[in-house]
Amino acid sequence: MKSNSLIIDLRRQLPWHKRYASNTSTAMMWAVWLLLWRPVLIVAGLMSLQKHHVLQHLFGSFGLGLEHGITALFACVAALLLWSNYMPAKTVEKTQVKTMTDYVHHFNVPVKEVEQGRQKKISIVHHDEHGKIVRIES
Question: For residue 19, how many other CB atoms are within 10 A of its CB?
């Protein structure tokens, strides 16, 4: 089994009574699901005995719907393949690494204050009313 699987299967580590309860409840749910289909199967059986053409028409229209669904699925797959191959993707441009002179020119503060601010864990930045950095306390 793969170590990085997305499915976590720890069933073998459960106690036997929890596994038994889980298996039994799963089997009971499947049985109820099959019992819910019983009226549909009885009606289909009676219709096949009474009128053959109605059941054939019903299955024929189901087949036609299935055929249209598969055709639509293949059309979507083709459209997505064409979209991914021929539409240009917007790539994220990597920013260039800033140098110390870039920071000094942008913030208009001395080099010593920028270096001290980068070395400290906590720095207090003072702004003016327009949002421009005035001073950095380290």
Answer: 13
Helix H, strand E, coil C: the string for the chain is CCCCCCCCCCHHHCCHHHHHHHHHHHHHHHHHHHHHHHHHHHHHHHHHHHCHHHHHHHHHHHHHHHHHHHHHHHHHHHHHHHHHHHCCCCCCCCCCCCCHHHHHHHHCCCHHHHHHHHHCCCCEEEECCCCCEEEEEC
Rounded Cα distance between 87 and 57, Å, is 44
User: Is the pLDDT reported for residue 2 higher than 70?
Assistant: no
Mean pLDDT score of the chain: 84
Pair 120, 138: CB distance under 8 Å: yes
Q: List, for residues 79-113, the tens digit of each pLDDT value.
A: 999 988 888 777 778 888 888 888 888 877 788 87
**pTM attached to this predicted model:** 0.35
Contact 71, 77 (CB under 8 A): no
